[in-house]
Amino acid sequence: MSSRGQQLEALLKQRIVILDGAMGTTIRTYGMKEADIRGQRFADSKKDLLNNGDLFSITQPAMICDIHRRFLEAGADIIETNTFSATSIGQSEFFVDDPREHGGRKDPAFYQKIIEDKSLNDLAWEINETSARQCREWADRVANADGKPRFVAGAIGPLTVSLSNSPDADDAGFRVVTFDQVKQAYINQVRALIKGGSDFLLVETIFDSLNAKAALVAIREVFDADKIRLPVSISAAVGRGGETMISAQTVEALWNAVKHIQPLSIGLN
Q: What is the CATH number of the domain that holds 225?
């Protein structure tokens, strides 16, 4: 395990460690408009990009770094990368025509093209590595100023697709995407987050434990192939009452599905 990972584990044994706040809602307080997220690079994009908050790491880095700075100065020990949707699958929502608008449907054949799309993969890599480097710079800058260690969590979001549930009420066995496709998208993200300087990986806001399994398998495959180990944390999204995930799986079922990786932490929101 990396030295920073060991340092974080040691700190957790001493006291409560503070994670930063919500990136998406904080971005909104800056009043950014569509033109701000597009910049010159994405000026000709055919679809609206304003809800693609991860893209701000590229087009408005000063704002994203200011948010990291504010969280750190407010007392956060850990800041998360701005990479909630930074996979080829996540970015396809903003850069690829939706076949459902033309009488088609999203299915594994559609997502195979997404997985093989070099421009989407390159964009996902750039967002992840750039965001991790931005976090690393500010975590180190604040830590060097006051002598207290700060850590970077590589944020891995849940995607907009589910591996456990069918979106077609008339075809319960249908899945829009395969496990291997989701895993491959996560592998690209994991490698870029590590390359950018993440201290540990946070599989966050997971609503489907099979999606979480795909992310965790991707992480393990990267660790094994690249001869590296970082701590892994998991945060799941639960429905009203906190008893089940949004996909109707119980909290206990989630724990049974992921406990073998011995996560640094597991939480619910």
A: 3.20.20.330
